[in-house]
Write a structure and sequence with these properties.
About 25% of the residues lie in helices and about 20% in strands. It is α/β, with parallel strands linked by helices.
Length: about 525
Amino acid sequence: MTQLISRRGFLASTSSTVVFLAAGASLAAANQAFQVIVYGATSAGVFAAYAAAREGMKVALVVGPNPIGGMTANGLSRADANEKQPIGGLTGAFFRAMGAHYGLPSAFRFEPHVAEAHFRGLLTEAGITVYAQDLLETRPLMMEGNRIRFVKLEDGVQLTAPVYVDCSYEGDLMVAAGVSYETGRDGQAEYGEPTAGFGLAQSLRTSVDVLTAAGKLIPLVKPFPSTVVGAADRAVMGYNFRLCLTNDPADRRPWTRPPNYNSNWYLIDLERSFPSDGLHAGGELLDLPKVDRNNDEPVGENWGYPNGTRARRKSIVDFHRTYQAGRLYFFATDPRVPQFYRDSTNEWGLALSEFTDNDNWPRQLYVRETRRMKGVYKLRQQETSAGARFDDGVLIWGYDYDSHPVQYLASPEGKLIIEGSNTAATPGMGAKRYHLPLRAMLPLERQCRNLIVPVCASVTRVVDCSYRMEPAYMMAGEAAGICAAHAVLDKVAVQGVDSAGVVQALKDRGAIL
């Protein structure tokens, strides 16, 4: 049994064995009561659940659309952090645990299965009940005024709790609760941000022709829109799977032709020059024969994901998988690709030792941005560029604004324009180390009084280009779990929680604020 001490000083005993419940294998009763329910098993979700349990709460984690550990356990193996950043608490402990596995003080590069084992170990240690399914897509919850009364799983089981935490990348629980949100790019006029909106970052590639001999645009390229520079649009930066590749023949899975393969998707690659040193497989993971490949984005094919139905999202995920597998197969086999580049591609393959239950493919698509809550406080670029501090700051972060391309466009001359790949387009407006205030994780009370949203937080799209990194999500998840526990213990709305108490609890747990 694991002894957990709450801030009230009482002991809460939890089993040292986590209970995993798949659809159709629920607990005996149709309705299950908890004190905190976390939705989305991202790294933030695991840390939120663990932090709440550590405060003495009875916690359930609904896996939802994100496998355990989210991206941190599914290929994003080069963390967007290092030892120079102020990272403590559960997140600092995570990087120390990664280091301990490899005999190092800490490690910011690690194998996916090592990260996954750590997350699962936390769930086991805290005795958290894990429901390995999703909520119903239609009517997933019942509201009672501005309070979530219960959520309903796909197998019909109802889960109740005084407080809920939406840690999913998609924010589906937030939306179901009627909380306001935004998607796409804010315009400059919306929040007065100098680098917001369409068209500030355009890279013209005069060597890349985007018209076929028949005068049609090649796949993935769009006509140049009439959108005004700086205006809002529905653009979403590119997604991709973070593949774990190896050049170890004993662990390497050869490239194979994926279903629905279409070599025409890669005409844009034939128009570019192939690097003379061959395929750049990715970033090394320590001194292992493995790399984290962060590439192969079908830019612009994901705009329907944030607000899409589950069927629509699945089709987008499936297309990304086919596109990425096909692109590497194309590099490895197509006679139009130079022989030296084919040879270098064939030196690599998926690591057979990773994602062994999923055809050696990551279970989670890298969903870099989706929805952004319109909460109690909206964090803006002017504040993050000034290194803002807040009395209710629950984490320090400082990654610069980083937007992957959002679309490929055709210039009037038929050349390639890569649009939206750099948000920090104004000198002096990069992000400094800033606080995320607790208020940015809280909805307006009139909309929902018992929900916390640490991932799809209340930040602008420009700020989200900095905040969207996994270590920031982890730290926010821990803060959300503590906030949830305090709301339960004090019997108040999440908006009424003493933020100073949350900040102090984080400091007591080793957070650096």
